[in-house]
Design goal:
By secondary structure, the protein is an alpha+beta fold. It contains 3 helices and 5 strands, in the order H-E-E-E-H-E-E-H. The chain has helices at 4-18, 47-59, 84-102, and strands spanning 22-28, 31-38, 41-45, 65-67, 73-76. Strands 1, 2, 3, 4 and 5 form a 5-stranded antiparallel beta sheet that branches. Helix 2 (47-59) crosses helix 3. The termini are far apart.
Amino acid sequence: MPKRSVWRSGRLQKLAGRFPAIGDVRGLGAMNAFGLVRTDDPSQPDPQLTAVIVAEAEARGLILLSCGTRYNVIRLLPPLTIPEDQLSEALDILEASIEAALVPA
């Protein structure tokens, strides 16, 4: 598997391609973040969607940190020693949480 930070960033970029509400993906080294925007106006942050994704992830067993001056950014900083299977599971939960928040039941 490629270096974890590159692999995680690539996986987040794929999510951004799938979900237009992910406005940008950024990161340096072990820390990554992505901003959430309104799909009807991508220039506007979406703190409500961010809160829903964080709550969905928590309900599924994943703790996420929201941040940013507009409260629309989710920051990821897993432990450097996280096993690859746990990192993959966390990203699967993140993806499911985003999908649940965006797709009406």
